[in-house]
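All the exercises in this workshop are built on plain-text protein records. A record pairs a protein's sequence with a compact description of its fold. Backbone structure tokens are a discrete shorthand for how the chain folds in space. Once this layout is familiar, the rest of the handout is easier to follow. As an example, a complete record with its sequence and its structure tokens follows.
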Amino acid sequence: MGFDMTYNLVQERDNNGRQWAVGIFTGISSSKKIVPFGLVLCNQETKQRYYQIFKSFFEMINFTPKIIITDEDKSTIAALEALKDER
């Protein structure tokens, strides 16, 4: 499974002036095509926020992937490590 956060898709800002980012969960289908599994809007890139995002997504799909491909964002990695330690 892959996860990436991107900007510039949502131009609006929240009441505190923070820009919203769009996160996308992706995977590969049985026919070897990339498919989106889910989207999330996020206005804080913190360990706590990513933790909530990943925990909610894994509960929703009732599955915790063994491998997650993402970028080098420290908050993302810290959240995934915290979830791994819980399981």
Q: What stands out?
A: The chain has two helices and three strands. The chain has a mean pLDDT of 90. The first helix runs from residue 47 to 61.
